[in-house]
What we know:
By secondary structure, the protein is of the alpha/beta class. It contains nine helices and 14 strands. 31% of the residues lie in helices and 17% in strands. It has a six-stranded mixed sheet, with helices on both faces. Strands 1-2-3-14 form a four-stranded antiparallel sheet, covered by helices on one side. Strands 6-7 form a two-stranded antiparallel ribbon. The longest helix has 58 residues, at 2-59.
Amino acid sequence: MTRFWTALRDRRGGIAMLAGFAALPLLAMAGAAIDLTRLYVLHSRLVTATDAAALAGARAINEADRDTQIQRWFWANFTRDAPASRTGFMGAEVTSLTIAIEDQSRVVRVRVRAAIPTTVLRLFGQETLVAQADQAARRQDRGMELALVLDVTGSMAGASMTALRDSASEMINILYGPNETVPNLWVSVVPYTATVNVGRGRAGWLAAGSLDPSDYGSTVWRGCVQARHQNREDETDTPPTIVPFRPHLWPSTVGRYTPHLGDNEWTNAAITEPNPENPPSDAAQNGLGNNARGPNLGCGRAILPLSQPRSTVLAEIAALRATHRGGTMANLGLQMGWASLSPRWRGLWGSPTLPLAYGTPFMDKVLVLMTDGQNEWYDWPEGAPGACRTGGSNPPCQSGYSSNGDADMTAYGRLRENRLGLASATNANARSEINARMARLCTSIKAAGVVVYTITFNVSASATQDLYRSCATRPEYYFNSPDGTALRAAFREIAGQLANLRLVR
């Protein structure tokens, strides 16, 4: 019996040992299940973060800080432990992050490897598991007709005009990248003041008999037009083949001594108006400032219709100069920006096929409207004729001036002509009416399918900010820029938003 119980005890110990050995594979399998589940969750997050990084890179493919943006977006989605740490989601360490750019195909590829510490498998000698993601995004721009409607009034002279040219140029460079042309991308540039210049070569858009060359003395009609205020045609995209324009003319006030009518005295030999078409420099354009004289006073540079070469658009932006006198009528710039995109004007700008029809597949129509001030007539405080020939508008000239409630010549004529049909022709009432017309115009443009972005530059008036905010297609498409740095950031952000991206792998 003693031998039996001894043998039985020995057999039980062997069974326990066998059971222990048999449990090891089960423990390893359970540990693997736990750690592989963690690896699966890590891989899913890694792919999401790499996708976001690749898309950010494709969006910023032409920007100097592209790689910085790629890494910022990756870590924003991978929840970095600390600013300089390589450890993120679930304690995983990023062991490599590489960025590759294919310039010709406009593809950004981001490859990432991350190692996660194991929990159970480390008991079996496997201390980490590795996940990797390889994602690529292509900068896939939709076709676009883009109108840049830009304020070039006298208040933009100096650093403001430099900031505008730099900002708009950077936007174009972002959209075009290294290319001279991009398929199905066209850009128009529409400068505006208190009138808009359609181009002197478009006299055929004028009402019959309305242009008398002799009215312009020793110079010529430069292309600015009056507002089509009758029947609110200044709120439509009606082409001039249906409702023609009339030429803008600021008549000489020589011999007219009524206060404020001596503000633009010129004779055939005394026209000093700046040349907005080919000014050699800002200084040359701004030298006379408000003291210039001539029938085209206040008339800015002509519209550049939809054009495809990047160099053409950049040259036009570089040639923009501040244009003094008249005031600000952003609604008229907005209207002509729409005209440069409206299919009702197809063939009128020169191209027989542009602008394209609304709803053309894979095509967008976008308008960017920028201003540095509120809509208003400018009232130049000059006294009697000849009083400010040498001293400009500084005292003592201003001390001898008394306003009669009138103001400069604009596309709506003078303020006291009251072409707007105001109950009382004051600047405040005129501003309210022009703002109302502009608001209705914005609504019509958006209803036609045009995406509208708006920018106010160094504008503190809340009413003007509200007008431009409501004009934008969405509230976030409005940008208030208090300085040149913010203006540049606004144009840059808009350019980025106009990039339509898709993952290719």
